[in-house]
Specification:
Length: 401
Amino acid sequence: MQTALSSPKKSLRAVLVGSAVLVLAASLGTGGAAGSVSRAAPGCNRGSLNIERHRYGTAPSGATVHLYKLTNSHCMRVKIITYGGIIQSLSVPNRNGRTRNVALGFSNLDDYVEQNDPYFGAIIGRYANRIANGEFTLDGVTYELPVNNDPNTLHGGPKGFHTKVWDAQPAQDANSVGLELSYTSRDGEQGFPGRLETEVRYTLTENNALRMHYLATTSQPTVVNLTNHSYFNLGGEGTGTIYDHRLKINANHYTPVDSTLIPTGRIARVAGTPFDFRTPKAVGARIRNSHPQLLTGLGYDHNYVLNGGQGLKPAARLTDTKSGRVLHILTTEPGIQFYSGNFLDGTLIGTSGHTYRQSDGLALETQHYPDSPNQRNFPSTVLRPNETYDTTTVFKFSTTG
Ligand code: BGC
């Protein structure tokens, strides 16, 4: 894990206007940053780099929850709420410049508090995905975690980072607008050792990328694995399934799971299986294949072992040929969980008033592998007091003809 935590506040240029709404608008002139999508398509209403703050509600803890709306001048808009650091909506243009929200979510705070079992859009911590039987041993000490996905601990436990109200600081420079979220997790919270100082910096750039920079330091040896749990439907949230989206994952291997979705420890080849997305394939083309791992997961719910070593590398690409929207995911992480929304069962009503059914969205969660604290042959998730957890993931959007 990497170098010292740098100051989060250096790019801050915020002005508070009253208590209800905060607006930051860059005086960028007409230039802005060039990028592959920098020409506005017809129908796209160009704005300017800007961030607004609105009151969103009150969390069960009594804390006020805000919604920050980040906009760039190339028709991309991201709404983030301070409850769970959740990406509540993510609007991007199609090939004709028509903007639509492509992230699944809810329209109000109560729904996020009461029924976000799918973890729509949330920051996941302290440990993304499962830890077997809710326990792990570190430096000879065994830690017990709350079990919330029988018999395992899922996504940091029932009161994981997705339920916390994060402190927020807007940030802006000439080519981007951002939100810096911070949360201190006390020693022993949800069973994890060490006081963990956590930051997640969201940055919306002028080339239609949303960058997520995760930083953490600890007071005692611990394990950390942070991610964002957005579900995408590039045709638009609430428009049906993602079966015809074409997915490419840069991975030769994946980690098969047991009946409780814990990795068996095997690093299996994707070649010759329905898990092979090394060249783009429609998500639905093989999802009903009788491969035992698809039966276990009720579809895709597996960690892929990314090719390409350390550094920021292309991990996955998702294309909706109908709208022309393309999502490129880059990450410094060694793995990505491809979850095809198998447990969406039609009981939740999403942002635009439609119910969500199986595969109405998919999640691509960059991460260290599930259950790494109990698996010796997986890359380590241990963080020690003299180290900084430092990972980056980018969701970059473009269009294709
Ligand atoms: C997990 C799924 C789980 C989903 C929502 C994914 O990361 O792999 O098994 O159902 O999150 O909790």
